[in-house]
């Protein structure tokens, strides 16, 4: 499990755009001030000094997207902004940049979350797994190898399918997977390569050494506890950057780029369960001297360019986050100049390129057409029928059948699992979130893809015991999702959700109890008329909560659940439990599970 650091540091030097594996005796190179963007990819005089410009391209949160295709709708991907997705589009953008700059003047890196997120990614992890005796090469590895990536940081979703799948993916990649803060749980030594150093060969023979340090998310220890506990540990990004950046400078790095699977907000979704910040990229820039630019990931937001002043040096660090799924490509334009016998950074700037401006690279689509076709056939397999159409469009503001269905399947699985146990007599309640407002179950034939659209994440199911008081506090925390809205007058459903940036997936509706959410009241005082079986829920009452592993492990920071007694869990994905239920039952009929158990009110008056 432990990455052999001695072997890594003792390797040979590869020139051109190759890897530099240098020892600690290499000359130091200090960070230089960052100015405005500039450079053309050539070497020339500047104020009496030689200058060289190059471009570092970056993607992040690709989440298994190769084609510009939506497996849930079985059609070309589209959204309200007409974005496009996939590595086939990214390949065209990369080719265009290399043609303009000269391939030898470019690098291509990624900031993580590569092998989970689409049905294509699921298919090659579970249906036709890459870990099988004659398993295929992962399509993401094939595409990224063909495009010519130089390095990729580990994302938290890399661990969703277990370490063997990740290691097999790593074996297939012709570029290193970097994770300086992914360490062996016992020895605390790097379990993956911490960094790579690339040599940019300039026309006059003075190579520029560009170090790429990879950092991943400490939340992996919580979110994928079942896969990593006792095997891997994940220290904080700031702490590990502070350890590695000086080493990279001492080994002769002229430029230091960080690929960080971590957002910029400085916040965490797992509360105080870990001492490390989840979204720490801006903190790394501010607190760790010697970094020139950071490719940001994890947050799924677009940041063309953000400049953060380092608190020690007073120098600016340039941050950029390209939009998820291959919708954007970041370009860091770096210019260095020769000063006192070494290269120093003169300027860094960044921008993002839009994938919807180019066509898919036919080299990538042809190479993976057969793999794509297998997945399309799989997701379109009919597994049952639905008596009516069910839509998630109103799920954020109303108790709709489609969320009741998810909660019902979860609760039924937990009841069956607990039958005959000491907890069999406890009432089961079940949480569900709206993962996609566009998800729907059609009337008539139901396929795997329609069920996958309802539950796009690879979460598994657990059962945790909560008291009535804890359940109320859980619901109060969830209800912070709503914008406080005064009584009287019309209500626009589009304007009352996502308060303080809370995403839809961090709002839980709970089935099995009835309650009201008074959005006229401040957060923390909204849950009223909480009843079970028609009677008020007592503080001392006990319930079994059917809950996904992300929430149970602290995802979203909900109170009590992470520390609650676990009475059952399964390694089967909730999506597969839903698919199996439909296959076994044959028919989805809301009459069997749907009811209005919660509603929004203002001073006791229903909003809708």
TrEMBL record:
The keyword Transcription does not apply. PROSITE patterns: 5_NUCLEOTIDASE_2 (PS00786), TAT (PS51318). It is found in: Cell envelope. CDD domains: MPP_CpdB_N. Belongs to the 5'-nucleotidase family. Its cofactor is a divalent metal cation. It catalyses: a ribonucleoside 3'-phosphate + H2O = a ribonucleoside + phosphate; a nucleoside 2',3'-cyclic phosphate + H2O = a nucleoside 3'-phosphate + H(+). It comes from Streptomyces lunalinharesii. Keywords: Hydrolase, Metal-binding, Multifunctional enzyme, Nucleotide-binding, Signal. Residues 55-301 form the Calcineurin-like phosphoesterase domain. The keyword Metal-binding applies. This is 5'-nucleotidase C-terminal domain-containing protein. It comes from the Bacteria. Residues 382-562 form the 5'-Nucleotidase C-terminal domain. Its main location: other. SUPFAM superfamilies: 5'-nucleotidase (syn. UDP-sugar hydrolase), C-terminal domain, Metallo-dependent phosphatases. Residues 1-31 form the signal peptide.
